[in-house]
């Protein structure tokens, strides 16, 4: 039995349902709202922005958290052998960015304008690139690999991450954007925010928690900026539209989001 969440006994096969022909309207619990189940491990990772987008839009979804053992048991039944998966009325879909854009459309956090949407996509892929630079060092767990890992982290802290952060900062500044990819809060901000929290948390040896301090547009303290930090975020940007606060809700790792 899972810890306080619904057990996934194996998603239905993709062929069970045909994809909808158009994007659904906001799913705030109406009779035609699709039934949504998001399945991942019980940590934030890159799935957190999807959960946040659903939450901000007041969109009902089942937040299924599986253990590694449960994932191993279900892996062969998954379309690409990976989590996260999002089930939409039984249709099983993989890939976080697909989930995030879908959640953003339902929640009104993804632009309809094609160019504005492309700019959001640009930011999402930039964040994916930054993440991709960090992830290999996460896998270096053996004692023998520590020296190499710390050398790579030093390069990340002193060169790679500052270069990416400067480019995002400059992109915002030169376009006069108040947010990560435009003038309104959207899923790009949620993605940048989640990555930023992780980088600043002190859990990545060799990456200083001050890593984003020199980028006031990218990571602005207090309220009103692209990535308002901490409790300011709870009060403003991530305020859910129709339900109680995500923060402090005691839902697994979610309550720790702003720590
Ligand atoms: N590009 C995929 C990556 C998903 C992914 O790597 N998931 C990992 C868990 S964090 C997984 O399921 N790994 C198992 C495997 O690939 O066998 C996404 O964004 O959803």
TrEMBL record:
Disordered as annotated region, ranges: 1-29, 222-259
InterPro entries reported for this sequence: Glutathione-S-Trfase_C_sf, Glutathione_S-Trfase, Glutathione_S-Trfase_N, GST_C, GST_superfamily, Thioredoxin-like_sf
Entry-linked PROSITE patterns: GST_NTER
Gene Ontology molecular function: glutathione transferase activity
GO-annotated biological processes: glutathione metabolic process
Coiled-coil annotated spans: none
Source superkingdom: Eukaryota
PANTHER family to which the protein is assigned, alphabetical: GLUTATHIONE S-TRANSFERASE
Domain GST N-terminal: 34-111
Protein name: GST N-terminal domain-containing protein
Organism the protein comes from: Ostreobium quekettii
């Amino acid at each position: 039995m899972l810890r306080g969440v619904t057990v996934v006994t194996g998603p239905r096969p993709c062929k069970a349902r045909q994809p909808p022909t158009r994007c659904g309207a906001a799913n705030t619990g109406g009779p035609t709202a699709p039934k949504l189940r998001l399945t991942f491990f019980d940590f934030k990772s890159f799935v957190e922005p999807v959960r946040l987008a659903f939450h901000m839009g007041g969109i009902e979804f089942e937040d299924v958290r599986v253990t590694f053992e449960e994932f191993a048991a279900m892996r062969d039944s998954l379309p690409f052998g990976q989590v996260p998966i999002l089930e939409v009325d039984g249709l099983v879909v993989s890939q976080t960015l697909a989930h995030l854009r879908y959640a953003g459309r339902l929640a009104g956090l993804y632009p309809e304008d094609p160019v504005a949407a492309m700019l959001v996509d640009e930011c999402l892929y930039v964040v994916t690139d930054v993440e991709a630079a960090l992830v290999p060092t996460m896998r270096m767990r053996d004692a023998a690999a520590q020296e190499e890992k710390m050398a790579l982290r030093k390069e990340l802290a002193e060169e790679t991450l500052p270069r990416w952060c400067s480019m995002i900062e400059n992109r915002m500044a030169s376009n006069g954007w108040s947010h990560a990819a435009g003038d309104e809060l959207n899923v790009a901000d949620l993605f940048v925010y989640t990555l930023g929290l992780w980088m600043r948390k002190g859990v990545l040896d060799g990456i200083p928690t001050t890593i984003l301090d020199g980028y006031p547009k990218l990571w602005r303290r207090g309220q009103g900026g692209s990535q308002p930090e901490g409790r300011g975020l709870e009060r403003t940007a991530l305020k859910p539209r129709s339900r109680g606060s995500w923060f402090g809700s005691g839902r697994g790792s979610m309550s720790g989001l702003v720590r």
